[in-house]
Amino acid sequence: MSRFSQQFHSKKYFALFMLFVFSTFNPANSYAVDIQSVTSPKGIKALLVEDYTVPIIALSFSFKGGAAQDPEGKAGLLRLLSTMMDEGAGPYDNKEFQARVEELGVEISFAAGRDAFNGSLRTLASKSVDSFEMLRLALIEPHFADEPIDRMKTALITRLVRSRKSPGRLGSLAMREALFKGHPYEKSVSGSEKSLATLSRKDLVDVHHKLLARDNLKIGVVGAINAEKLAVILDEIFGALPEKSVLQPIAEITPEFGKNIIVDLDVPQTSISLIFPGLKRNHKDFFAAHLMNHILGGGTFSSRLYEEVREKRGLAYSVYSAISTYEHAAILTSGTGTRNDRAAEALEVIKTEIAKMAKDGPTVEELDAAKKFVIGTYAISNLDTSSKIAAVLVAIQDADLGVDYIDRREGYISSVTRKDVQRIAKQLLSVEPTIVKVGPKES
Fold it and tell me: Looking at residue 354, which CATH number applies to its domain?
């Protein structure tokens, strides 16, 4: 739970806060995002929101592929790649590159997800020419020098060693093995100590060439730049990338449910996860599932699980449910952490509340409140900074939601009926879940 959330641990005060939010915030105005489609002379496409309120440009991008493309025995390769992109490029060694980035005041970052390799840039408009050049060098001319490779591998391995007895990591590994056995999603994005140790410069060069290409690239740009100038900039930054990516096909997978997994760990608290089917982001019933999840455990202070597990019984400090959508699968996870001697009770309460939702769905009042919250907080959470809007523009493209998605989103949510949510709740939550517990076996 965030520090912000802790300040509102009382539902009474949280309700007053949300009343203030909805009385002072007009989502209709905040949703007025004018999105332009831009295509460069080389055919590179991007979505752009011009905004001259402040002289800043934010750029986000995504290459389809991600850690699911890690070769067999080389899990963690994309994670290592994400740490190496600013470790020297073009005429700069690693220290010179980072000094130049700091001198410009530009923020450049890279991250490896399960289905995509992501990056972002944020710069003052007055520094944009030089900032874009640093991003171009990182993407097109990375050094992958031996010393930074060894240093980054050591850092990643050290982090894994420190997490050997982390309930969260152990639970995640056990969950993925249970759900996705034999599929690329079973592998950890972070890799393992053994797999990271085998990675070489050749591995980085190969995956960089195969994955970072123009045909699997999505771009979102927000800020003080017009479409004509952006079209030229897109070619300058990305134009020298290979035209075609070389990706291994990833099969669709239906996760395996109905398993009970216990990871024996001598810790004072037992971590509990229940995993059910989910829905992908572009599924026609996604918002019915999203609203159902909000009411069940995604709405924090207003959720059923929060009320039953924390407020009424004091079994745990936090309890949640969340839908995780991947390109080739989707799951809904509910979980908590509680004292070992109360783990069985907490699990039973969670299962009972999920069964009630599967049987009866939400009340009319719950659904109405969930709609207001999900509609009203979207702009606060996703459209309040240029970097967030740029990331949303990429996500819209990744899920093929359409350039007018932000305008249509409220209508999608408003049109969801109680019967829709009841139907989806029964479909997803009537399945016998896979349960993963991390803690002493007797808990």
Answer: 3.30.830.10
Q: Which domain holds residue 383?
A: 252-439
Predicted confidence at residue 340, as pLDDT, reads: 96
**Statement to judge: residues 120 and 231 lie in one domain:** yes
Residues 233, 312, single domain; the answer is: no
Looking at the domain assignment, is residue 227 inside a domain? yes
Residues of the chain with pLDDT under 50: 1-30
Instruction: Indicate the burial class of 146 (C-beta count within 10 angstroms; 0-12, 13-18, 19 or more).
Output: exposed
Burial class (CB in 10 A: 0-12, 13-18, 19+), 328: middle
DSSP state of 85: T
Minimal CA–CA distance to 36: which of 220, 295, 277? 220
Pairing relation of β-strands 45-50 and 217-223? Answer: parallel
Residues 285-311: tens digit of each pLDDT: 999 999 999 999 997 788 999 999 999
Task: Retrieve residue 414's tokens.
Answer: 């408003």
Distance CA 76, CA 63 (A): 17
Q: How much is the pLDDT for 32?
A: 61
**Residue 210 domain-assigned?**
yes
Predicted TM-score of the model (pTM): 0.89
Distance, in Å, from the CA atom of 220 to the CA atom of 62, rounded to the nearest integer, reads 9
- 5, 22, 103 from 2: Cα distances, Å: 5, 21, 32
pLDDT for the residue 5: 38
How many domains does the chain fold into?
2
For 214-253, what is each residue's pLDDT tens digit? 999 999 999 999 999 999 999 999 999 999 999 999 999 9
Separation between Cα atoms, residue 291 and residue 195, nearest integer Å:
40
CB neighbours of 327 closer than 8 A, spacing ≥ 6?
A: 64, 68, 115, 250, 280
d(CA 76, CA 227): 37
Structure token digits, residue 404: 């007018």
pLDDT of residue 13: 37
